[in-house]
Design a protein that fits this description.
By secondary structure, this protein is α/β, with parallel strands linked by helices. The protein has 3 domains: 86 residues, Winged helix-like DNA-binding domain superfamily/Winged helix DNA-binding domain (Arc Repressor Mutant, subunit A, Orthogonal Bundle); 111 residues, 3-Layer(aba) Sandwich (D-Maltodextrin-Binding Protein, domain 2); 102 residues, 3-Layer(aba) Sandwich (D-Maltodextrin-Binding Protein, domain 2). Helices cover 39% and strands 21% of the residues. It is built from 10 helices and 11 strands. Strands 3, 4, 5, 6, 9, 10 and 11 form a 7-stranded mixed beta sheet that branches. Keywords: DNA-binding, Transcription, Transcription regulation. Belongs to the LysR transcriptional regulatory family. It comes from Streptomyces celluloflavus.
Length: 328
């Protein structure tokens, strides 16, 4: 039996350990359920020990199966690194890197990747962008439909790192209360003052769409302030929320990256109890050494520094969390 086929079976076993079911493994690898079962049975026969056992109606790894998965992941990571090293010898070739990014990053951060003056004698990889919320971006990454997923998590709503992935932090940013100056005055909020959200329990609230982490963030922050927000608008675009806040339709919580340009009709206030959004670039384990992927990750870091240094440089700064507080 060829070594390549054995590696494919090990990859399949590792995928089963990540997905948990034959059906999910088959979907991820674009195979049929019977094909996955046959390959797992063949691998078990080759190993000479039981790798899987039935508990009720579902399959689970045995201790031997888990041991083989641990070794398989090391092997697969090393193979991915070897492929990257070989690709490094062919740097003059033009590759393609597929990126999934949430909307405000797709609007403000990803465009900074163009144009791309690569090092002399080398061609920059072609970039493909698809806009996805973090959950969908992670799913696309795990299904090998993209190579990099730019995602975010909030300090009070952390997202676990998906199995089989690595993360490169890009930046942290504060969340602001956005409202019309007249609404700020009505709630006794002076220009530049940190906003105590408890004052806004009776306000009309403009919320992101219910299927987003940003919606959950607003609900959680208001709940921590002691009230349930009275929602009058639900929209998938922060620009819509800001435009309505400028018309005194209500107030909104918006991360710095998604803020519009300052206008006389809008005020941005840091929160007295800070909430931060962390932005990350995720990629599958072992692929970060691929020259094209590594190049785009480095460019993303550079773009993040440029974006955070230039975007809204005159905004009021939120209070720094205590040194013992974990970053969000």
């Amino acid at each position: 039996m060829s070594f390549l086929l054995e590696v494919r079976r090990l990859r399949l076993l590792a995928e089963f350990a990540t997905r948990g079911t034959v059906a999910a493994t088959a979907e991820a690898l674009h195979l049929t359920g019977p094909a996955v079962s046959q390959q797992l049975a063949a691998l078990e026969k080759e190993s000479g020990v039981p790798l899987l056992e039935k508990r009720g109606r579902t399959l689970h790894l045995t201790s031997a199966g888990q041991l083989l998965v641990d070794h398989a992941r090391v092997l697969l990571d090393n193979l991915a690194a070897a492929e990257s090293d070989l690709a490094a010898l062919r740097r003059g070739e033009r590759g393609t890197v597929r990126i999934a990014a949430f909307p405000s990053a797709a609007r403000t951060l990803i465009p900074l990747l163009w144009p791309d003056p690569y090092a002399a004698g080398h061609q920059a990889p072609t970039l493909h962008l698809v806009e996805h919320e973090p959950e969908a971006a992670e799913a696309a990454l795990l299904r090998h439909r993209v190579d990099i997923a730019v995602t975010h998590s909030y300090s009070l709503l952390p997202r676990p790192l998906p199995p089989g992935c690595e993360s490169r932090p890009l930046f942290d940013e504060p969340v602001f209360l956005v409202l019309h100056p007249a609404d700020a005055a009505a709630h006794r909020l002076a220009p530049g003052e940190q906003a105590d959200l408890a004052r806004f329990a009776d306000a009309c609230w403009l919320l992101p769409s219910p299927d987003t982490a940003c919606h959950d963030m607003t609900q959680r922050v208001c709940g921590a302030a002691g009230f349930v927000p009275r929602t009058v608008v639900s929209a998938g675009d922060f620009a819509v929320l800001a435009a309505l806040a400028a018309r005194r339709a209500g107030v909104a919580l918006i991360p710095r990256l998604a803020l519009p340009a300052p206008t006389p009709e809008l005020r941005f206030h840091p929160l007295s109890t800070p909430v931060r959004r962390s932005v990350h670039a995720l990629y599958r384990t072992g692929t970060g050494r691929h020259p094209d992927t590594r190049h785009v990750l480095d460019r993303l870091e550079s773009a993040a520094r440029t974006s955070t240094a230039s975007e809204h440089a005159g905004l009021p700064q939120p209070p720094r969390p205590p040194a013992s507080r974990p970053g969000g």
